[in-house]
Amino acid sequence: MARCSPPLLRRLFCCAAKSASAAGAGAGGTSKKNIVFLGSPQVAASVLETLLVASESPDCAFQVAAVVTQPPAAKNRGRKLMPSAVAQLALDRGFPGDLIFTPERAGEEAFLSDLKEVRPELCITAAYGNILPQRFLDIPPYGTVNIHPSLLPLYRGAAPVQRALQDGVEETGVSLAYTVRALDAGPVIACEKFAVDEYIKAPELLAILFNLGSKLLLHELPSILDGSAKERAKPQDDSKVTHAPKLNSDESWLSFNQEAKLLHNKVSFLFLAYSSMLLPTNSGWPGTRAKLQLVNQNGEPDVLEIKVISTKSCASCDTTADGNEVLFSGNSLLIPCGGSSCLEVLELQLPGKKVTTARDFWNGLRGQKLLKSP
């Protein structure tokens, strides 16, 4: 996906501009404003799809003039270089490959030069994954607007959905905010709230919030493109700021000394965090892990490492005399946790195996005992 030279870029853009101008004239004599979209994972691709569909309307005030995304990355076992979900969606929609930019850094001189050739009036970001320097932010006259999956100023940072689930919030949402040099600190144009239940997991919630965000963006674009949104955007209250730092692999381990509710929240926000929706597929993210002891019929213990896929929490737990034995009831493994609580494991995965239900796993133990790992 090579970036085209400025002459070729200029030629392609001028053709697009003429087409947009003709369409605009037929709809009332105004040309469409140029928007540049920046994003990378699947949730961002859904936002781009929304913008592309909307831009096809003859009376739409904007056109997507260029797409910016992360460079192709090695994926799957073959380590083949694959385009980001956003790049793939753009190509599938027939978007010119020469207008899909994949800079390593958004501050590269060649990229900024190409961006200026496109003459964007507004840039929109959604999970782009690259820091935007001031030289970038100075280019579009109507600014850069970000779709952020939290109710700003809450959960500024790289992992707002995961950290909200970790904290067990009952409500979160999505915000449209102008991008400034400070992280997620720009004035907020609008936000949409969303109620959270204890069963939702990070990928599902992330998809929901970006879907809400794309609809909110379409609603607000007229005021963003006439400048009135900037006048009414509200500065964030710095006294209410919370942060959402990116995940690290050490967080993937469950400690059964903690209360079950905390562990359930961790499973919810880490579940499939290594998928392309939340982290790069080549990041080596291990998922949510736990260590148990498997005791055979001779009383010999062995460490068993599992990946915990789905859970429920229980405020109280029936335990054996020593309080360490893992039991089975209904469709769940019952693991004693801190505060006399109990983590119910519904699905799990053994190393090198497929995800299985707790019942099938339990049946496969064939009389062996399962204990919490010390």
Automatic annotation (TrEMBL):
Keywords assigned by UniProt, alphabetized: Protein biosynthesis, Transferase
Pfam families with a match to the protein in the record: Formyl_trans_C, Formyl_trans_N
GO molecular function, one term: methionyl-tRNA formyltransferase activity
InterPro entries, per the entry: Fmt (IPR005794), Formyl_trans_C (IPR005793), Formyl_transf_N (IPR002376), Formyl_transf_N_sf (IPR036477), Formyl_transferase-like_C_sf (IPR011034), Met-tRNA-FMT_C (IPR044135), Met-tRNA-FMT_N (IPR041711)
Superkingdom, taxonomy of origin: Eukaryota
Top enzyme class: transferase
Domain Formyl transferase N-terminal: 34-199
EC code(s) of this entry: 2.1.2.9
Keyword Zinc carried by entry: no
Gene Ontology CC, one term: mitochondrion
Domain Formyl transferase C-terminal per the UniProt entry, residue ranges: 247-365
Signal peptide location: none
Keyword Transferase: yes
Recorded family membership: Belongs to the Fmt family.
Protein name: Methionyl-tRNA formyltransferase, mitochondrial
Organism: Oryza punctata
